[in-house]
Amino acid sequence: MHAFSVSCQMSDDPPGFGSLALIQAYQPRSFRERGLAPFFTTPLLSGARVRGSLATEVLTTERVMGGPKSRPSPPSAADAGSAASVLEVMVPNPSGGRGVYILPWSNIGVLCRPTMHDTCLGLELSGRLARRSGLTPAAVRDAGRQMALQGLAGRTAARAAQAARTTEVQRHLATRNALLSDIIIACEPAENRLQSPLQEAPAMLEQRGMQALGVLASRLQTAFSRVRDGLEFIAASAIDIGLGAHAGEASIPRLCDRLIGLSAEMQAWAQGQVRQPSHLPELAPLAPLTAALQRMVAMAQTAQAPARALLRDVPALMRMALARPQDLSVVFARPWWILDGWEHVALPWQSATTDSERIAAIAGMAARIPILPEEIEAWLNLPAGTAAHLNPRGSYPVAMAPPNAALSRSSTIDRIAHTEKLRAEAL
Questions:
Q1: Are 362 and 285 in contact (CB under 8 A)?
Q2: Domain ranges of the chain
């Protein structure tokens, strides 16, 4: 396990970091290598990502000090469950320059003193890795929500987390009921169907659904208990994609709609700013930011297509859940891997209230555009080299400046309080 590695040549580094190895531009090859974006409340960890250790894989974009320089096959997000058990954190250059520090979470004290929220979140994520449960978008979101529920991000975030958990339970039930309805339609004899399952009371829907599950178990020549467990597994996997009449309320469609609305709102605001020539240079990052945002939403929506195709044939979906559950999980998780980090990017704009704050927010948001790894090409059948073309900056995002310029001069406590406010809005 290497203690430290750095991607991109650094400038104006903090004292004590000048002896670290300097390497080439950071271009992750897989989503697992890019890592996931928890919501940290420590100002210095704004924009940081985490991942399971890649110590067994030597990467040309992350030179292991004194190690070899071979390039093995890229790790896949599909293999996240088999990741090494050491949590790594990738922190944008604290000086605000280009580059990223990569170090074990256990060494985070070298860079900063994390808040209690972040300390506990790091321990929780490390524990999940140690249990070999892997780091997935769902796991990172769940861990973050647990921290908020414990009050570690403030009372407002705790209330928001409780409301989010209640909503998630309701969506899980709605997804499960929609799956049961489809199974009833697929397995119940048409002549016995006196009423559409969509019109049934919950108790009757459950009864008819269990009977239909019994028929499906016979067709699949497997135990009823396996099919019943498969139903729960599918419902948990599909909850963020959505199914049935309330599919649009699921997390991924809602986030996509929110990001598209954000792009339109930013562009409409910018139209009013063009009448002020002094603002034009400061608005330069807006076009690449909104283009990247729209492109990412389109990719996430494309990645949803295979999952929605599976949901149209629940018996076939059940066969896959029983035979290849990991493959099913990967298909349903891909939109989240693509969108990961974008919710954090959007938050500064939502908290900005004045033109000067919005201009500052745009600059910071543009600097935090998540990099697309090469793996996206295989996921969406894109030509080789597409990812590099869509990442013209060729470096890891720089540290995020607070949208309120006064915050950059305020105390660390004030900045943490501002971050906790954003945390509540993210839940």
A1: yes
A2: 5-426
Give 287-304 pLDDT, tens digit per residue: 889 999 999 999 999 999
Pairing of strands 5-7, 87-92: unpaired
- Contact between 52 and 135 under an 8 Å Cβ cutoff? The reply is yes
Beta bridge partners, 90, equal 49, 102
Query: What's the pLDDT tens digit per position in 355-368?
Result: 888 888 888 888 88
CA-CA distance, 285 to 268, in Å (whole number)? 15
Which strand ranges, in their side-by-side order, compose the sheet holding 49-52? 5-7, 100-104, 87-92, 49-52
Q: Residues 16-21: contacts with CB within 8 Å, 24+ apart?
A: 17/101, 20/101, 21/63, 21/65
Q: What is the DSSP string of 68-119?
A: -----PPP-GGGGGG--SSEEEEEE-TTSSS-EEEEEGGGGGGT----HHHH
- Dihedral of alpha carbons 257, 262, 263, 269, sign: positive
* Residues 22, 323: Cα–Cα separation, whole Å: 46
Name the residue among 69, 28, 20, 18 with its Cα closest to residue 49.
28
d(CA 314, CA 323): 14
